[in-house]
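To: structure subgroup
Subject: Chain for Friday's discussion

All,

I'm putting the inputs and outputs inline so they're searchable in the archive.
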Amino acid sequence: MNQHHDKSEQVIVALRRVIRAVDLHSRTLVESHGLTGPQALILKALQNGSLMAGELANRVNLSQSTVTDILNRLEQRGRITRIRDINDRRRVLVEATDAGLAVLDKSPPLLQESFAQRFSELQDWEQNLLLSSLQRIASMMNAEDIDASPVLSSGSVLASAKALEEVLEPEKSDNMALQQHIGEAEDKTA
C-alpha cells in the first residue's frame, strides 16, 4: 500500500472515530436522561432565567423554526413552559421548569462543552491549524455549504418523540436489533 493511500485511510479512520464519538455521546445522553443534545443546549441556555424564543435561537445558534420545534417537544414533556409577557402580549418568554432543570443538572456535559474547553487550551497556531484543516476536509467532501449548528449531536437536531422512544424503550422497536447488527458489522470493518 502506498504512503498517500495510507494517509488518506488514516484521515478517514480519524473522521469515523469523531462520528462514532458524537453518536455514542448522543445515544448515552438520550438513554440516560431522555434529552437530545440540542434539547440540553436549549435547557442550558434557560438555566439563568427566561428568554424570548428569538433570543434563545440566537444564543444557541439554531434557526427560529428549529428552536420552535425543539421547544414544542420540551413543552410536551414538561421540561419548559411558555409565558406571555404581561407588558407586551405579542412576546412569549420561554422558561425551564423545575423538572427540566433537574434533568439537566443530572446530565453529563455536552460533547461540545468538553471539546471547547480542551480546544481553548491549545495555542493559537494549533487552533488555526485544526480549523483550517477541518474546513479543507469539509470542502473536499463537498460539505462546506451544508448548514450546521455548533451542536455535536448525531441524527436530526429535531429528534421526534418516536425516535426518543425507540432509544429509551428499545423493546418496542423492531428496528433496534437490525440497527445493532449493522453497528456490529461496521465495527468489524472499521
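Points worth raising on Friday:
The chain has one domain: 3-159.
The domain at 3-159 is CATH 1.10.10.10 (Arc Repressor Mutant, subunit A).

D.
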